[in-house]
Amino acid sequence: MKYKDYYAILGVKKDAGADDIKAAYRRLARKYHPDVSKEKNAEEKFKEMGEAYETLKDPEKRAAYDQLGSHASGQEFRPPPDWGQQYAQGSGAFDDIDLSDLFAAFGQRQSRGAGREAGGPPPPMRGHDFEAGVGITFAQAFNGSEIQLQMNGLEWDEEGNGRRVPRTITVRIPRGVANGEKLRVPGKGGAGFRGGPAGDLYLDIEVADHPVFRVAGQDLYMDLPLTPWEAVLGTEVSLPTPAGTVSLKVPAGTRAGQKLRLGGRGMQRGSGTAGHLYAIARIEVPSVVDDAQRELYRKLAAASNFAPRGHLEQEAAL
Amino acid sequence: MNIVVEQALTVDEQGTISYSELVSASGVPEDALRELVRYGALAPLDPAAPAWTFNAHALMVARKVQRLRNDFELDTHAVAVVLSYLERIETLEAQLRELRARQG
Question: What is the C-alpha separation between A97 and A161, in angstroms, rounded?
Fold first, then answer.
């Protein structure tokens, strides 16, 4: 088992009072809690802080933690010989768990003890929910996909001892999922105990950016580069969409930034709803023109009475 | 060997969720959930029904409630206030995503 320095994680001294520990935790939670923070790896960082606080805020757990002695962070260690009898009710298997599991088990036993004092047998307990981050490509999000997940979730035995159980699970991700969306796989979390139901598995979906298609809800956006004459005269272009190439009619007089809608060609959801694909007109200007072309532009300039700044003078007058 | 493929569900595929499933799947105590309904932070589809049913999205809200309760040690009223801020942030982020997607 690897040692974690809970005091260092919270940035407090080993003799810090309960108030100081609480304040340190609250200060860090404001910064790193995944529901309020946009810090990178906030979730991971917060997990460690939560674990440290859970242990240090409870006098009994803190005493047990202190009895483990001082080690360097990340150093392999074993609890002292009598530690198991005193705090872990003789559960001797410390190999396939980590420090957080040990103290989570401690909490389980505390709550079981409380249940017994209230009379009657301890109630059935639902298994833990598992959570896993899943990175997928845009194509996988658009079409749906099957992915394999390796999990190493904490499960409890009837005695309340936790252990890490490695599992491989194949999951079907439905089409049309969005970046940041959470999916639920019911009953695929940790096993329940004393007859309780299993927990659920939650997947945090992260969809990689696509070089052409940009996602907003169920709608997709892409750029449609046009030449100035295509924008003025109108044209028909062949446009790649996620579901294949389509022919798109660009009306005469298309302005830069104008949205051309391809209905129902956005993300499709399992529920049957489909978003739209919007092609945003971008009017591109050639950076190099030869003499003949320049002459044509001059002729156009001379012939045209188009005055795009005509309204500016009047409207900008203060 | 046959590989069992588990179906991951989006919130809109799950449709609705019963009150008892909401309690058990989120871990939020019943009295706190009832209080959140009273404050309007969670809305049953038919508040007058003898057994409440919620839109499945309520599960994601309730899980957030449980995190806020545990991790920030907030009371239920404070949780309801934080939820309304988080909801506003989500709406703004969705608008920002759309603007960015449009702009490229």
Answer: 10
